[in-house]
Design goal:
The complex is a heterodimer. Chain A is an alpha/beta fold. In chain A, 29% of the residues lie in helices and 25% in strands. Chain A has one domain: P-loop containing nucleotide triphosphate hydrolases (Rossmann fold). Helices cover 73% and strands 0% of the residues of chain B. The chains are: A alpha/beta, B mainly alpha.
Chain lengths: 256, 242
């Protein structure tokens, strides 16, 4: 369970995130000293849930999910993973919550597929046999078995996305958070990534998909949360949530 | 990250050439007055110039937090001796003042970068240095100012990716190796893409420069620069052996 309580996050002037070029930078509130990305956000994400976190660029989506495993620290409020505040046990939070960034290349720290997927398990101090088992299992989950020795920079965008997912899965997290996983992918690659996410979710892994485009994922989601100006604007089951979107600038499906 | 931020401060309104000349004059004065009194005067001037550029000392320390340990290391190393008493603090005074002088110069550089668009720096260098060398130098300055923040952001993302998968649990040496390897790989990749982007947008050796404006505020800056150079020359003359 991921629990967000009264979370507020501000970026200082020139701070990473405020000018990093991310599509989901913070909302400007006219404060010359910085900007407020999230205002008093509260949220509970049970284990095994398929949650779609939507919102326009700058609505605070990426800032919110980066708090789930302590990559960002809130100015106010707190985030708990399985009842433990993230700031109290970063290792536990980062083991339980796997993160795949918007740009797959931002996820990689090694040159080849297997070396990169093994990076997380190695940091857990596991035996080599266990690491190999996890790497094989993670690669199998994204249909990349037998490609461990390939160079990541020679893979297609969809394959890189799947390797990034495998890297997070090798930690065997209870929740997998994906920031705009379909951006820049063609239709077959989108379908491939989505199929793997659905299978993972059926296997019990909670999935949080951050997106501004609801067309692909909403039909498979258990719940829709929409952020607007750093606040929760919609929190409802998908069918009901879509009806309450109003003028919110997200790309919605023709039929849910 | 040390990069240009739009604004309407006095620093923003100054012509880039005035700011470059002022920095050069400040450097001359700093090298001419290495005693505590001279550096105290220059510290006051630095704080005033930072305020005029909407840059706080805290911003400066944040920008240079990686450099500060190196500046502090210089006097510490100088004070070490081979043999008893092993440490001689008295000889560390001059290096400490020199390191402090460097910090003041870096503070002015931070104020310059924060208040000057890259395009203006490029044009100012090209105008100050005549001919093709000036254009080449200007282009180089532009590339460095544009490319460096991108590389810094890449390295920050690599570190974030490592942190997300518990990379911080690894030994420091291992982390440095991983960040360096991934950073270099991305830097080469970025360089390739930048080269293509520059060619695609018709990179010119002689582009139309931004309009140069020399106003009343520039006159004040030049007067200050002249005074600083005069102070440096006076100091040099006073300490000369003749």
């Amino acid at each position: 369970m991921i629990e967000v309580r009264g979370l507020t996050h501000r970026y200082g002037r020139g701070e990473a995130g405020a000018d990093s070029g991310d599509a989901d930078g913070p909302v400007s509130d006219g404060d010359a000293a910085g900007s407020t990305a999230l205002r008093d956000v509260s949220l509970r994400i049970p284990d095994g849930e398929f949650l779609v976190l939507a919102g326009a660029n700058g609505s605070g989506k990426s800032t919110l999910v980066r708090q789930f495993n302590g990559l960002l620290t809130p100015d106010e409020g707190e985030v708990l993973v399985d009842g433990t505040p993230v700031v109290d046990d970063l290792v536990a939070a980062r083991t339980r919550v796997g993160m795949v960034f918007q740009e797959p290349r931002d996820c990689f720290v090694a040159a080849t597929v297997a070396r990169d997927v093994a990076f997380g398990p190695e940091n857990l101090g596991l035996s080599r046999e266990e690491i190999d088992r996890r790497v094989e299992r993670a690669l199998a989950a994204v249909n990349m078995v037998g490609r461990g020795d390939e160079r990541i920079d020679r893979l297609s965008g969809g394959e890189q996305e799947r390797v990034a997912v495998a890297g997070a899965l090798a930690m065997e997290p209870s929740h997998l958070v994906l920031d705009e996983p379909f951006t820049g992918l063609d239709e077959p690659a989108r379908e491939s990534v989505l199929t793997h996410l659905i299978e993972l979710n059926r296997g019990g892994t909670g999935v949080v998909v951050v997106t501004h485009d609801l067309r692909d994922v909403l039909a498979h989601a258990d719940r829709l949360v929409v952020l607007a100006d750093g606040e929760v604007a919609v929190d409802a089951p998908p069918a009901k949530g879509v009806d309450t979107l109003g003028d919110l600038p997200v790309r919605r499906p023709e039929r849910c | 990250m040390l990069t240009y931020e739009p604004g309407d401060s006095v620093g923003h309104r100054l012509d880039a050439r005035s700011k470059l000349l002022l920095q050069a004059a400040f450097a001359a004065a700093a090298f001419g007055h290495t005693d505590p009194v001279g550096l105290a005067v220059l510290t006051g001037l630095t704080l005033a110039l930072l305020a005029l550029a909407s840059t706080t000392p805290r911003d400066v320390f944040a920008e240079y937090r990686g450099v500060l340990p190196l500046l502090a290391a210089a006097p510490a190393i100088e004070s070490l001796r081979f043999g008893a008493p092993w440490v001689d603090p008295a000889v560390a005074a001059d290096p400490a003042l020199a390191a402090y002088r460097t910090l003041l110069l870096l503070a002015l550089v931070a104020a310059y970068v924060r208040t000057t668009p890259v395009r203006e720096s490029e044009a100012a260098v090209a105008r100050l240095v005549p001919g093709k060398p000036g254009r080449l130098l200007g282009l180089g300055v532009g590339l460095v100012f544009r490319f460096l923040p991108v590389l810094q952001a890449d390295i920050a993302r690599t570190r974030e990716a490592m942190a997300a998968r518990l990379g911080e649990e690894r030994p420091l040496r291992d982390r440095v190796r991983l960040v360096a390897t991934a950073g270099l790989t991305r830097a080469f990749s970025r360089t390739d893409r930048l080269a293509v982007a520059l060619r695609a947008r018709c990179l010119s050796w002689n582009p139309t420069p931004p309009e140069a404006t020399f106003g009343r505020v520039d006159a004040g800056a030049l007067a200050l620069a002249t005074a600083l150079v005069g102070w440096a020359v006076w100091s040099a003359a006073a300490t000369a052996p003749w």
